[in-house]
Amino acid sequence: MSAPGRWTRWVNWVQERETGETLAFLRIALGLAVIGTISTVVAHDLVPFLWLDAASGGYREVAGHGFLYGIIGVTPTTVWGGVALGLLSGLLVTLGLGGRLPAFLALKAIQELTDLNGSAGGSYDALLTNALWLLVLGESTRTLSLDCYHRTGQWRDDTPILAIPRRLFLFQLVLVYWSTGAQKVSNYWTPFGGFSALYYILQQPTWHRADMAWVAWIYPLTQVMTAAVWLFELGAPLLLVGLWARRWPESRLSNLARRLPLRGMFAVFGVGMHLGIEALMNVGPFSFISISYYLALLWPSEARAALDRLTRAVSPKAAPG
Description:
Blueprint: H1 3-14, E1 17-18, H2 21-43, H3 47-51, H4 68-72, H5 76-95, H6 101-116, H7 123-137, H8 146-152, E2 161-162, H9 164-182, H10 197-201, H11 219-234, H12 237-245, H13 252-259, H14 262-280, H15 286-293, H16 300-314
Antiparallel strand pairs: 1-2
């Protein structure tokens, strides 16, 4: 194919549209993730401890002030204002009220608060804010939202939206796994270290939920899972290659990609991995945020069919005549 032909194909792909059910599912999950991330800190009375200077009840001097706090200063009033903004915007994102603005405000609230104390967060903060950026990019309130109900008088709207935001969720998910796998350079993740990384991770009190000495009895299983997780992460880009290959003209590779249940295989292993992490380890909101990304694997037609089944299940049956 000529260069102009490839460019036209790329432009057409970027401009493709689909109905918005999947992006709406992502919006709801991520709105709940914002609420959960901030409310956990509030519920444990850790807002002053983590995000204020020692003079105001914190355990240390806050290392950075971010953009907004560098202007308005770090005080109990401004920090609690950021907390309130984050909770309110998370609620609006979940309900789908206000278009793109609540997603942007939730993004900024999370960024500003976590920038106050880099030692009190984790990589899941960036994973969450990246997702919120994609909600700002997409029309996530097109359907299944209060915006939709206000605009149409119904909860659902089949007007197509750009598909690229949902696809970028998949790209972000694959990028996270691949980059994580590429950074696992310790011998413990490889045959040279006996694939022992998972066993040692589960013995660290800072991570596990309870005493994990019993894992020694299933040490070979931890070796198998260590290898499986490492290979899954390194091989994550194959998901995108396979999904893209399905669009190619008839060939051995495109036929193989169409036959293999790529999304199902990826989701079963990935979601199962995160559920296992959540069950055995204390990693904050990481598991919920990560699993939320998997909603992007749903084609909108599948999400719509699931909604139809749910609607039929909960709607009252007609009384017999």
